[in-house]
Write a structure and sequence with these properties.
By secondary structure, this protein is of the alpha+beta class. It is 36% helix and 24% strand. The chain has helices at residues 18-24, 34-42, 86-94, 122-137, 153-159, 180-185, 189-204, 219-234, 244-254, 296-312, 346-368, and strands at residues 6-10, 52-54, 56-60, 66-70, 72-75, 102-105, 118-119, 143-147, 163-173, 207-212, 258-265, 268-277, 281-289, 316-318, 332-342. The strands form two sheets. The protein has an eleven-stranded mixed sheet, sandwiched between helices. α2 runs antiparallel to α9.
Length: 383
Amino acid sequence: MLLAMLIRQLNHISDIDPARWDALAPAGYPFLRHAFLAALEDSGSVTPAQGWTPAHLVVENPDGSLQAAMPLYRKMHSWGEYVFDFQWAQAWERAGRDYYPKLTAAVPFSPVQGPRLLARCEDSRGLLIGWLEQQLVAGKVSGVHVLFNSGEESRQLAESGWVQRLGCQFHWINRNYQGFEDFLAACSSRKRKSFRKERQSIAAQGIEFEWLTAEEVRAEDWERFYPFYAATYLKRGRQPYLTPAFFQLLSQGMADSLRLVFAREHGRDVAGALFLAGEDTLYGRYWGCLEEYDRLHFETCFYQGMERCIAEGLQRFDAGAQGEHKLLRGFEPVLTQSWHRLQPGLHEAVADFLLQEGEGVKAYRQDAQDYLPYRRGDSAAPR
């Protein structure tokens, strides 16, 4: 049966019917929905000119039904991935070899854990892995990378000789809190006072929050939001990854997942943040502020999201990559992973490095738990 299957490469996610793709994608994970990937490409945020050439893979049965699929990009740089391999590139280029192009299975600009090799069975997933490795053997790329993945695919990648890279993020866990006060009750007395003081300082500045759900977001709301998103990048002298059209398209294709919040000072917008809701997780993705306000980032991106999780009964809040300051506000250290297969010579050197790095990441995660604000015995960080 496997011999009759056809592996096909897509130059655009719209080359596949949305219903067929979404039938394989996990229903509660918004970042692999056809509408999300299409919004990236149709908006001009992910294009060959930007260094991201779509090369998605699908495995089709003779009757045209999908057996497996993978979001895949041919990359000419390493920006927007959040798994940093710049030193690998420099080492390979010092050896007189080209590091780019490379193949990356990922959700662009989104360091969010989830499956990357979507398959109905282990054998069809193996076809995807085999195709990636053939590109490496043929010398078409320096390496293939599967970023921020989870699920059954990890075992198959390990058995095929891929190397794992560990990372650490900080997620807030909703332990069936009925309100924000329940979360505070789980914290030490000193931290409860600190959290209340932070939140009171926002109210004292005359700042209130306006949440917009799927049914309420209008086109003009994205025009309100985009300057805030763009400011986060422009302040660092960089251009925003995402175009204004991305948010408009996202609203049209998967509005049910969107949660938009504005911070307003005496009726004037001063900051904005966009969240996406999955089956059991709230994802904080894009935020920005045009002026400086004390502690406004913490309130908008953390406390508001925590309250939203509680209100919607969501169990986890992923507020984005990095940020040790999240620990002090109850976000627990969680290990993430990616998998890599590289050209001979580079692969072995990277494998040795990742073994040492991985031990350091695990030790860091263990030490980081000491900075959580919970009363002794109340924190149950994932192991």
